[in-house]
TrEMBL record:
It comes from Streptococcus caledonicus. Residues 204-299 form the Formyl transferase C-terminal domain. Keywords: Protein biosynthesis, Transferase. One of its GO terms (molecular function) is methionyl-tRNA formyltransferase activity. Residues 4-180 form the Formyl transferase N-terminal domain. This is Methionyl-tRNA formyltransferase. PANTHER family: METHIONYL-TRNA FORMYLTRANSFERASE (PTHR11138), METHIONYL-TRNA FORMYLTRANSFERASE, MITOCHONDRIAL (PTHR11138:SF5). It holds the Pfam family Formyl_trans_N. It comes from the Bacteria. It catalyses: L-methionyl-tRNA(fMet) + (6R)-10-formyltetrahydrofolate = N-formyl-L-methionyl-tRNA(fMet) + (6S)-5,6,7,8-tetrahydrofolate + H(+). The lineage of its organism: Bacteria, Bacillati, Bacillota, Bacilli, Lactobacillales. InterPro entries: Fmt (IPR005794), Formyl_trans_C (IPR005793), Formyl_trans_C_sf (IPR037022), Formyl_transf_N (IPR002376), Formyl_transf_N_sf (IPR036477), Formyl_transferase-like_C_sf (IPR011034), GART_AS (IPR001555), Met-tRNA-FMT_C (IPR044135). It is an enzyme of class 2 (transferase).
Length: 311
């Protein structure tokens, strides 16, 4: 059996880990994941999805705040792993750790060299890409710049958002890794260098990027909203208060950007720089996430055609 260290954090990573655990060719010596974090309004401490899987399988778990310079580093290097598999781990790996094993590969949720970085799925949707994918690549010191072992793609549909694409690509990545890792380990698959001149980047989404720019086209606003759902969530302002938008639909209509064009008991249509969108799922300040019909029958009753979204 090939002895592995697995490093990952979110549900995407957990799906890949489950695949490796179900495959009799691999022995997971230890799992490295991010520390437990306080989440939500109640600040409840929550384990990472990868930690939950590791606990269910009685695996050794490491959770350094920062792997570089940690006490855990020496322990990991002493475990005698043949290789490392990472998937959305969220930290850089030191060269000495990479050099301590026979191979190290990453399951990256983009079709490299496009969208190197921490938010590839977000940017693919925001930019209106027609497909997304996964690349299995060798790990090097430079971020997501290693040679490519294999790739697989899947369409991005209008009904997709970040959440659904993460689920789809986790399965794509799991299957691709299990299909190609044996051949790679055996030396039957020769990794292909990336064309670095074609590289694009997908850094973590900033608060400024979350804010809806109503002067953009309806399609761009539609892509932004689904490219940030269910996290970090696009927002605008209504009467000076933050107003989150989770789901929209492109519709016909023209008017001043951010202006309400149509309002009835079930529909709220807002103008953009080109076209309009119908809001479908929203969250007013201080309220829970809700369908637009519930908003319009509640705190949104006082809105009128001509009212304005935005700062």
């Amino acid at each position: 059996m090939t002895k592995l260290l697995f490093m990952g954090t979110p549900d995407f990573s957990a799906t890949v880990l489950k695949g490796l655990l179900a495959d009799g060719r691999y022995d997971i010596l230890a799992v490295v994941t991010q520390p437990d974090r306080a989440v939500g309004r109640k600040k409840e401490i929550k384990m990472t999805p990868v930690k939950e899987v590791a606990l269910a399988h009685n695996l050794k778990i490491y959770q350094p705040e920062k792997l570089s310079g940690s006490e855990e580093m020496a322990e990991l290097m002493a475990l005698g792993a043949d290789g490392i598999v990472t998937a959305a781990f969220g930290q850089f790996l030191l060269t000495k750790l990479l050099d301590s094993v026979g191979f190290a590969v990453n399951v990256h949720a983009s079709l490299l060299p496009k969208y190197r970085g921490g938010a590839p799925i977000h940017y693919a949707i925001i930019n209106g890409e027609k497909e997304a994918g996964v690349t299995i690549m060798e790990m090097v010191k430079e971020m997501d710049a290693g040679d490519m072992v294999s790739k697989a793609s899947t369409p991005i549909l209008d009904e997709d958002n970040v959440g659904t694409m993460f689920e789809k690509l986790a399965v794509v990545g799991r299957n691709l890794l299990l299909e190609t890792l044996p051949g790679y380990i055996a030396g039957e698959i020769k990794p292909e260098p990336q064309d670095h001149s074609q590289a694009t980047f997908s850094p973590n989404i900033t608060p400024k990027q979350e804010q809806i720019d109503w002067t953009k086209s309806a399609r761009d606003v539609f892509n932004q909203v689904r490219g940030m759902c269910p996290w970090p969530v696009a927002h605008t302002y209504l009467a000076g208060q933050r107003f989150k938008v989770y789901d929209t639909e492109v519709v016909e209509g023209e008017g001043a950007p951010g202006q309400i064009l149509e309002k009835n008991k079930k529909t709220l249509v807002v103008a953009t720089g080109n076209g309009a969108i119908s809001l479908r799922v929203v969250q007013p300040a201080g309220k829970p996430k809700m369908e637009i019909i519930d908003f319009l029958n509640g705190v949104g009753r006082t809105l009128e055609v001509g009212d304005q979204f935005g700062e």
